[in-house]
Amino acid sequence: MDQRIRKVPFGHADELDARSGKGTLVYYDTFQDVSEEQLDRAAALAAERGFAKLVLYPLHEETARRMWKRPIEPYYKREKSLFDWRRERENDETITVENWEGKRKKYTPIEAALRHLADVYPRPMFLYVSPDTANAFASFHSFEEWIGRIRLIITESPPDAHPNLTKYRHRWEVQENS
Question: What is the mean pLDDT of the chain?
Answer without folding.
Answer: 88
